[in-house]
Amino acid sequence: MATVGWIGLGNMGGPMAANMVKAGHVVRGFDLNSEAVSAAAEAGIRPVTSIAEAVDGADVLFTMLPKGEHARAVYFGDHGVLAHASTSTLLVDSSTIDMESARALHDAAAVAGFRFVDAPVSGGMSGAQAGTLTFMIGGEASTVTDASAYIEPMSGNIIATGAATTGQAAKICNNLMLFINLAGAAEGAVLADRLGLDKQVFWDIASVSSGDSWALRTWYPVAGVVPTAASNNDFAPTFTTELANKDINLAIAAAVAVDIPLEIGEHVQQLFQRLIDSGNAAKDCSMIVKLVDGSLETTA
């Protein structure tokens, strides 16, 4: 049994930390959102009121934060992780953040004498709850091995990606492909409907043919076909448009840094932005289908 510090108890971090409790670990959790802390406490996580309390005596610290700016704020400064944790504490950042921030965290942790890995996840809220997330872990090989032992109760797959920041690189590239596939599924589904195909018949064909993708099988944006899809529930979020827009913008920024054009990715980002501008930032990102079928009025 380990003592686990946890910072970030939102839609992903809360269920992930709860799975650590189920595995028998003592988890001390910190979040600025009081509702998230209350929900975590009901799942057996011990609430603390500061970063310093979260890291005190911890064998491992996990952070699950929205953006790079939040990760920097948590790790750096007089009240941050690096100022208060023992260097014996293994640091694991599972946030999805920009490459520059990921590099800054690695570099600062190394200078301060910490073991640190970037370990973003794929699998969404359902995967966080079920303990079936895929972890992509970048860092020193021995540190990745140590982190993997702690990660096991939350994971379905643990994949070492290589050197520092490669976990973030893998996550950014994977999500870019996911959102492009989602847009393709939306366009194909609407076109199939307008051409007179039954929605189930078309899905049955696409899911075993060259049009197949994880997005088609899991997030199909037409209601009544795939049970796990948000389209069955008025696009209540499994992955919000706001977060999808953040992630695809991370890919676009990374591509600019290495001089790679992402013309398709940039178009999908524009679709997400149109949803946000129409007041649907908190809806599921698969709601882009409504931009294809014309049922949502937005400013192009």
Can you describe this structure?
The protein has helices spanning 13-22, 34-42, 51-55, 68-75, 81-84, 99-111, 124-130, 141-151, 166-194, 199-206, 214-218, 241-257, 263-277, 289-292, and strands at residues 3-7, 26-30, 46-47, 60-63, 90-93, 116-118, 121-122, 133-138, 155-162. With 300 residues, the protein is of the alpha/beta class. The chain folds into 2 domains: 3-163, 3-Layer(aba) Sandwich (Rossmann fold); 169-292, N-(1-d-carboxylethyl)-l-norvaline Dehydrogenase, domain 2 (Orthogonal Bundle), CATH 1.10.1040.10. Strand 8 (133-138), helix 8 (141-151) and strand 9 form a beta-alpha-beta unit. The longest helix has 29 residues, at 166-194. The radius of gyration is 20 Å and the shape is globular.
Topology:
Blueprint: E1 3-7, H1 13-22, E2 26-30, H2 34-42, E3 46-47, H3 51-55, E4 60-63, H4 68-75, H5 81-84, E5 90-93, H6 99-111, E6 116-118, E7 121-122, H7 124-130, E8 133-138, H8 141-151, E9 155-162, H9 166-194, H10 199-206, H11 214-218, H12 241-257, H13 263-277, H14 289-292
Parallel strand pairs: 1-2, 1-4, 2-3, 4-5, 5-6, 8-9
Antiparallel strand pairs: 7-8
Helix pairs in contact: 1-2, 1-7, 4-6, 9-12, 12-13
